Amino acid sequence: VREAAGDEAPLLESRQQTITVTTPRSCQMIADGHKLRMVLNNLISNAGKYSHPGGHINVTLTAKPRTAIITVTDQGVGIPEVDMPKLFTKFTRLENELSTEVGGTGLGLFLARSIVELHHGSIRATSRIGRGTTFTVELPRHRETP
């Protein structure tokens, strides 16, 4: 989580944005660290892109006995409720006041969801227009064996 936040630091600094990362001392789990880092890079990058300069992003990892919960919260433009069902759809780019300057293919969240689901986890978003968005990733820490 900290490494992914560090990867995105240049983008955030160029937009005069700040980030706070909160993690427990330890959270061991069985997962593909490279792939999960890709998910986090996408979520943190999007938080920066869809927030105005000077905004703040919070990234939190919470370790529960059976799951790890990661939230990425921004103070961005938000996502209209009508667009929420399209959020994780391949090649979907949602229109908002910052989308024309951001660019992209519309694959990031689709791939993020695919990676999370391959880890038997879930990803969801909540948002309020003008207030920001929170993405929540919940992953099992250990796979049950039959």
Q: What features would you describe in this structure?
A:
With 146 residues, the chain is an alpha+beta fold. Helix content is 31%, strand content 25%. The chain has helices at 2-14, 33-49, 99-102, 108-118; strands at 18-22, 56-63, 67-73, 122-128, 132-140. A five-stranded mixed beta sheet has the order 1-2-3-5-4. Helix 1 runs parallel beside helix 2 and helix 2 (33-49) runs antiparallel to helix 4. The model has no long low-confidence stretch (mean pLDDT 88).
Name some characteristics of this structure.
5 strands; alpha+beta; globular
Write the layout of secondary structure elements.
Layout: H1 2-14, E1 18-22, H2 33-49, E2 56-63, E3 67-73, H3 99-102, H4 108-118, E4 122-128, E5 132-140
Parallel strand pairs: 1-2
Antiparallel strand pairs: 2-3, 3-5, 4-5
Helix pairs in contact: 1-2, 2-4
Task: Provide a concise account of the structure shown.
The protein has 146 residues and is an alpha+beta fold.
- Computed CA radius of gyration, to the nearest angstrom: 15 Å
The largest β sheet comes out as: 5 strands, mixed
Give, in order, the helices and strands. HEHEEHHEE
Overall pLDDT, averaged?
88
N-to-C span:
30 Å
* Sheet/helix structural class: alpha+beta
State the total count of DSSP E strands: 5
Query: Spans of 5+ residues with little confidence (pLDDT < 50)?
Result: none
Taken as a percent bin, the fraction of beta residues is 15-25%
Shape, principal axes of CA atoms: globular
Strand order of the largest sheet: 1-2-3-5-4
Number of helices: 4
